[in-house]
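Supplementary notes (optional reading)

For those who missed the lab, this is the record we used. Protein: Xaa-Pro dipeptidase. Length: 470 residues.
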Amino acid sequence: MKKKISIAIIVLFVFKIYAQEFSSQVKRFITVDDTEYAITDVTVIDGTGSASKTNQTIIISNGKIKAIGNDLEIPNGTTTIDGTGKTIIPGLVMLHEHMFYTKPFENWFSVGQMTFTFPRLYLAGGVTSMRTGGSIQPQTDLNVKKWINEGRMTGPKMHVTGPFIEREGPKVPELGFIDSPGEVSKIVNYWADKGVTSFKVYNNITKEDLKICVEEAHKRGLKVTGHLCSLTYEEASNIGIDNLEHGFMAASDFVKNKEENICDPFEARQGLTNEPVDGETINNLIDLLIKNKTVITTTPNVFEPYTDREIVPGNGLDALAPQIQERIKEDYKRAQGRDAASLARFNKNLTWVKRFYDKGGFLVAGTDPTGAGRTVAGYANQRTVEILVEAGFTVEEAIKICTLNGAIFLEQEKLLGTLEVGKQADIILINGDLNFDIKNIRNMEIVFKDGVGFDSKRLFDSVKGQVGLN
């Protein structure tokens, strides 16, 4: 009797893996949920960095890639999707995402949790896996992750970072602040027990804070990233931080006579402005980061200049609540023709990021939907790929950075990140040729997560006018 029960449990478990049940709220976005189907005559960019291939067929079975090639026999009765004139790429794996959005008030900087709009927008924009780059409501993020996995909410697979580890500096009411290094180990172990998988240190920490964070996180097999200022990239890399955020835009290494453990954002920005594009400090820093195997996350979208560009890069203005649209439009008008210095830093940083990559550095990507409020989940993820190509990366390199590299960092590369037989069917079907025009990445039709196809446009449309509210 016990043996029969055990077999029944195994059968039910296997069935649950390959036939996930979804709530009615999730089902309304699903367009493909067949056990087996094929996408035919499609161009494939597989995420490995290899050149794209045309006239390919990919067969999906039980949520995984069963076969891929240009001369495949499709079993009779298999559902087929015509991929003529279309491209498939792996689902995006993005590593500096947030579940919150900028909500300033008077002269206060503040952020608000986007529990419902952002998960949908990320998936709509092709993100099938994401890491939050710091959480203001980590328990909320963990709950959302759980409910997505259970099929009760719509969104990507989530890797949740703990609350920001920070000392008091600028008054951001949603941040918690520590007073001593001893608090760091308590934060790391408490939230590791809760299920977060990484930690983020912030602008005003000390060397001792970071040392403890790295030590405690690494004991648990978890990683530490940082948006720094009080510490230089060189100091953090030598201490053993795994990841540095925002390309080189947050580096204070270019400050002359920098005071230890002190953040001076104005001096840091000036140092970035003054450092020559081919300066000795930046080149030595790049070599050190590569030697120490410190990963860089590029987040160009959040720094994108205003002049002659979209109000919300990626064309996401309609996603914002009407009153927020008005504020963003006014800010945009005021900034036209007045952001030459921002443009210079933006371009310089992209040059350095590409140099880091070309010399062998490990580069991943994210969006950071904060800043001035022009960075909106989903739209920003698509725009990030465009910016990488505009910066000189090939289309195949840009896709690899935003897919396989992210999967490797998350230690998920055996499961996802590329289009290969046996991997999970995390796939984006795009109307158009990315090599002809990278902006075709905005023409996503179906985003497949574990083989289940979600309607990208329907997801985008479902939350129009709600970002900033929910």
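If you only remember one thing from this example: The chain has 15 helices and 19 strands.
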